[in-house]
Design goal:
single chain; 161 residues; 6-stranded antiparallel beta sheet
Length: 161
């Protein structure tokens, strides 16, 4: 059965604009939703992250999405299925659904990262995670894990160290 599609609307965003009323807080990283689920009829979502030193998500696995990470600026240590790499501007990594993956900013400078997730819908997870953690001084990983489970993610371990 073919799903009816809705014609996507064209739009333009400035550097500091996103598809939410304000930037999201993703475990201490500022996130601009550049392309939301609704923009692509569920095909993809794209995020711009400003990641301060020593920030990064816990080791996790997606059951529904493939994830591509592209470094715009800075240095990012990534791990996918136990293999670590250090990426600088222009470097990227791909974590297909089902792979254990994470990243961390170990250097003294922040990094700027683009993340694309397919299919779309991941912006719903990021909105819920931001709403939980934004008023807190540091991320609540126990409550974050519950939100992860609700969105088809499995927390496998702590952030990289």
């Amino acid at each position: 059965m073919t799903m009816p599609s809705v014609k996507a609307e064209a739009f333009t965003l400035a550097a500091r604009e996103g598809r939410t009323s304000e930037p999201l807080d993703i475990l201490g990283q500022e996130c601009l939703v550049k392309l939301a689920n609704a923009d692509t009829n569920g095909a993809a979502a794209v995020f711009h992250l400003d990641a301060p030193p020593m920030s990064g998500p816990p080791l996790h696995r997606h059951s529904r999405e493939d994830e591509w990470l592209y470094v715009l600026d800075g240095e990012v240590t990534v791990e996918v299925d136990g293999r670590r790499s250090v990426l600088s501007a222009g470097g990227s990594t791909f974590a297909p659904r089902g792979t254990a993956h994470t990243f961390q900013i170990f250097g003294p400078a922040a990094a700027r990262i683009l993340v694309m997730v397919t299919p779309g819908g991941f912006d719903h997870f990021f909105r819920a995670l931001s709403a939980l953690n934004k008023p807190l001084p540091s991320p609540d990983f126990a409550r974050s894990e519950q939100i992860m489970k609700e969105h088809g993610l499995e927390m496998l371990g702590p952030p990289l160290s």
